[in-house]
């Protein structure tokens, strides 16, 4: 394995910019994909494990090269063995195959050297023109030496002295068809080496591109989280400020203690890309406990279908809280009565559906926040899941409904 290995939840799609991305996020987007897309396990990049024993590259190339040539010589032995038997040749099939192997051992060495040189200098195969030039040089240098190697084997086979004159004498006396076969074998060897190295280069480029995209998406997620956390802090401190203004200091102190717990969760999850939905729901309940200090019994929230969260289903941190906060702001802060907020969970095929609903007020809520909660959530979903997750909002039966769908991915 190389330095990194690829495993991707993959949909390499460009993420369209919308109102959820402010200038800071788009600046971060210029620097580089996510670990989860389309709900499929798609590990983009992680450090590859080092095997206890690694075969050197040169040795793997050597063994592979000679093995492929051995297969080619074995096929050639099959074609000649039958003809030889008809002409009274008593040699065995393995003797004939070994003869082919010895005759083309020079070509085997040539193809191995070609692989190592082109691997060391990938620029030789970087453009069609350079590939053609490399092929021409390989044929010009390799063709005569390959035929000379074949002539040397025939010299030894005929029990003559292994000299250049004797070997070259066999070369010049060869039939044109034998020269043509040598040319074809050289061309096949070059094509196989070039194809293998080009495929390897494409794989390496794909891994580098994936690593770059992963870096970009992590930066974009960090930028969105950087928006979300000050947004959460602002609105939560506003709630505690309201307690202070009414002069209830013990309640305000209790609120500050609860805020400390919420901030601890936010800080703990700031270094994690994924948490379980059960953890996220607990955070929402702690957030509601803090808001209950401000609103008292007026804050009425029903939580239904929590059994759908069994199994350690994962999601990005602080995904549900903006939805609940949005419902609270557009319900309690718009009237003096009790709230009627419903948070429900259900399994929907391969997804988990989280639905938050609240009554539609007759007028808009006071401007109590930064207004990025739902927009930021949509952007984070797109980065984390691609098209496999969604956040839809609508009005139905006098209620505002936000529906969040995410794939069921277990921790």
From TrEMBL:
<keyword id="KW-1133">Transmembrane helix</keyword>
<dbReference type="InterPro" id="IPR010559">
    <property type="entry name" value="Sig_transdc_His_kin_internal"/>
</dbReference>
<dbReference type="InterPro" id="IPR050640">
    <property type="entry name" value="Bact_2-comp_sensor_kinase"/>
</dbReference>
<dbReference type="GO" id="GO:0016020">
    <property type="term" value="C:membrane"/>
</dbReference>
<keyword id="KW-0472">Membrane</keyword>
<keyword id="KW-0418">Kinase</keyword>
<feature type="domain" description="Signal transduction histidine kinase internal region">
    <location>
        <begin position="220"/>
        <end position="299"/>
    </location>
</feature>
<keyword id="KW-0808">Transferase</keyword>
<feature type="transmembrane region" description="Helical">
    <location>
        <begin position="179"/>
        <end position="199"/>
    </location>
</feature>
<feature type="transmembrane region" description="Helical">
    <location>
        <begin position="57"/>
        <end position="79"/>
    </location>
</feature>
<dbReference type="Pfam" id="PF06580">
    <property type="entry name" value="His_kinase"/>
</dbReference>
<keyword id="KW-0812">Transmembrane</keyword>
<dbReference type="InterPro" id="IPR036890">
    <property type="entry name" value="HATPase_C_sf"/>
</dbReference>
<feature type="transmembrane region" description="Helical">
    <location>
        <begin position="99"/>
        <end position="118"/>
    </location>
</feature>
<protein>
    <submittedName>
        <fullName>Sensor histidine kinase</fullName>
    </submittedName>
</protein>
<feature type="transmembrane region" description="Helical">
    <location>
        <begin position="130"/>
        <end position="153"/>
    </location>
</feature>
<dbReference type="GO" id="GO:0000155">
    <property type="term" value="F:phosphorelay sensor kinase activity"/>
</dbReference>
